[in-house]
Amino acid sequence: MKKWMEHVKSSLWAQASLYTLFVLATSLSVYLMDKSAIAFLLLLASLLLLYYTSFPVKLKWAAAGLLLVIVIPFATSGGPSHESYMEVATQCGIYIAMALGLNIVVGFAGLLDLGFVAFFAIGAYTYAIFATPQANNFISGHLFPVSGSTFWLFIFIGGFIAALFGILLGLPVLRVKGDYLAIVTLGFGEIIRIIFNNLEKPVNITNGAMGLSSIKPPDLFGMDFIFPHQIYFIVLAILLLVLFGVRRLEHSRLGRSWKAIRDNEIAAQAMGVPLTLTKLSAFAVGASFSGMMGVVFAAKQTYVDPTSFTLLESITILAMVILGGMGSVPGVILGASLVTLLNIQVLTDVTQWLNELTAQGVINVPSALSPAKMQRFIFGAILVLIAVFRPYGLIASRNRKEDVEKLKERRSSAAISVNSTNGPSGGVTP
Amino acid sequence: MVSSILHSLPQVLVDGLTLGAVYAVVALGYTMVYGILELINFAHGEIFMTGAYVGTAVLFGFHALGWFEGAGWIAYMLILAAAMLFTGLLGVGIERVAYRPLRKAPKLISLISAIGVSFLLQDFVRFIAELRTGNYIVTGITLYNDNHKIATSSVSGVFGDAFLKTNTIIVFIVAVLMMVGLDMFSKRSKWGVAMRAVAQDRETASLMSINVNKVIALTFFIGSALGGATGVLFAQQYATIDPFIGYILGLKAFTAAVLGGIGNIRGAMFGGLLIGLLEMFAAANLGLITHGNFGAEYKDVFTFLILILVLIFKPQGLLGKAVKEKV
């Protein structure tokens, strides 16, 4: 057995064939069975498995793309619960993007933000106000609701406005250190929620606690995106954009500045990292991811109200980042998926199962203990347990290994090129 | 407009001072822990809430057994003591389990642990309350609920009358007693001196043969007991409690602590009273001043704005001293 395992570890072909077998088996069972959350979860787990295989990186990306674009949508389309599977996958995507945004603020830059859901709310309301007749209340001319085809533009507008608010929040907060920052952002999250909850007078902008309903769905060349299996592809596309951005930013000059500030603010400042600009950019970038997903959320639900944006949501996103590992992109993706699946698939399924058992009289679980109500308990427990026992999360972040030879080569070639342009007497090189 | 603000002023003062006294005592818990560990004890608001529930539960117990029917003050003292003991031990337990292992870890990690504890406590209390009564919003028995009128209108015609319950006076007296007691304790007693020494410099204090762990545990006990006692006062004053009262009240009490200068015990008292007065003033008059456009529902926004403004312009607080950062 051990020998066999080692063989699998060393041979790519063995891994590939086993992996294909796993994907085939799980997707077939999802396709053939009417409703099997376990098969669906296993199918999603194949993405995690992919992370641990030793395929070349490009192949991993290609396989992940294949799974997400073709295999998962197709495998789930077999039964009547197609939409509910796709709903779960869509929610996962939305939360992954938000967790990646929070990861920039908390994980990379080390600024604890407890009001992160405010940016999500700003994005959602940006689309909701203009894609319903609501905007006619304060802009004359009966131009609204805008048509669903502007949704694509609104993704960027939502991201931009959220980023703007991120900077607005960041500006005063920058004078505040670490733990004060947590409190101020907590207050900011509450302020935004209270304002959205009450901004129905003097001018009715948000329609207060009633919320905004019948928001226009996105529309591409006359096709409406209404069902989760359609929204899924929008989320996937944005997620790809976000992921690409995060990967590029992480090792860029800005990304390294974030990490430097996180590890030691004073030392970073002494090394010439501009504190204000770097912190503000962390806030802005993180907020923009959240704002974009807010727009998608509003379009998906076709209904927004202030109760979707409570402190519990902020803490949920924080729990995702902490569980996965602060600053680790694969970790955060895993953390966000686990928490979301737990939240909307596992907890509801277990609750339903317990209710059935109670109805049959096998056991008696009082409704106070029903798992669907225990979110706070579970997220609180995740936060404490991870903080005490595994502060670096499930997949700890690693700094990229620098190839010393390559760096030297690059350096010498750069030096030569500078010398050749400046001529032999060019002593000072930048 | 001015006349109606003046008319409601006596009532605003009474309510504001009562609320402010509650904030002040809760703020003490934040400020003590922050002074000694440089950690915002997020769970402190939930300790306050637990205190409110313990007090109410014990009072329900007394009522069911028919004890102290005639002597309400004994019941009052006993529920205060029970809540203080329970929450004090709870605070020590939380410190031992969730904060002590992280004392050398980055601050962010202990802060996250604190947030986790606060959520755990909220839900724990929620399901115990829901299990026992079927609803987590509990309306308790209130002692000393009779109303008094202060005839401020007889002083000058511009003022209206103010009303208060006997319990309001009790809240105020108990809060003041606790604050004075804590002030005396930290200034006069040997343990108080040790506490201030640890807050100033933990390592040097430990070299002076102060048992740092014991002092920190004691700080948590006292801070949490004060928070729990305030919870009982709150439950008696406002009758209805739910497991989520601690979070927003804790946030405001923290604002009070920052306003007064964090780590400063007298500052926290002053800040608490000020925030209570400002909040009540905003709740009563915000709608009036803005001609009904922004009503009392914005009073929390008002409090948070104060917090943000204080942090921007005077981060050391009104009574605190500015500290230079050491490299």
Automatic annotation (TrEMBL), chain A:
Subcellular location as annotated: Cell membrane
GO CC terms: plasma membrane
MF terms in GO: branched-chain amino acid transmembrane transporter activity
UniProt topology in membrane: Multi-pass membrane protein
Domain of life from the UniProt record: Bacteria
Keyword annotations of the record: Cell membrane, Membrane, Transmembrane, Transmembrane helix
Signal peptide feature range: none
Region span, Disordered: 408-430
Pfam families: BPD_transp_2
Compositional bias segments (type: Polar residues): 414-423
Species the sequence originates in: Cohnella pontilimi
Transmembrane annotation, as ranges: 12-31, 38-55, 61-80, 92-112, 118-139, 151-174, 180-199, 220-246, 280-299, 311-344, 377-396
Source species taxonomy: Bacteria, Bacillati, Bacillota, Bacilli, Bacillales
Record's protein name: Branched-chain amino acid ABC transporter permease
Automatic annotation (TrEMBL), chain B:
Gene Ontology terms describing biological process: D-alanine transmembrane transport; L-alanine transport; L-isoleucine import across plasma membrane
GO molecular function: L-isoleucine transmembrane transporter activity; L-leucine transmembrane transporter activity; L-phenylalanine transmembrane transporter activity; L-valine transmembrane transporter activity
Keyword Cell membrane: yes
Topology in the lipid bilayer: Multi-pass membrane protein
GO cellular component entries: plasma membrane
Lineage top rank: taxon: Bacteria
Entry keyword set: Amino-acid transport, Cell inner membrane, Cell membrane, Membrane, Transmembrane, Transmembrane helix, Transport
InterPro entries the UniProt entry points to: ABC_transp_permease (IPR001851), BCAA_transport_permease (IPR052157)
Statement: the UniProt record of this protein carries the keyword Disulfide bond: no
TM region positions: 20-40, 47-68, 74-96, 108-129, 169-186, 215-238, 244-262, 269-289, 301-319
CDD domains: TM_PBP1_LivH_like
Pfam families in the cross-refs: BPD_transp_2 (PF02653)
Record localization: Cell membrane
PANTHER family: BRANCHED-CHAIN AMINO ACID TRANSPORT SYSTEM PERMEASE PROTEIN LIVH (PTHR11795), HIGH-AFFINITY BRANCHED-CHAIN AMINO ACID TRANSPORT SYSTEM PERMEASE PROTEIN LIVH (PTHR11795:SF371)
Annotated family: Belongs to the binding-protein-dependent transport system permease family. LivHM subfamily.
Protein name: Branched-chain amino acid ABC transporter permease
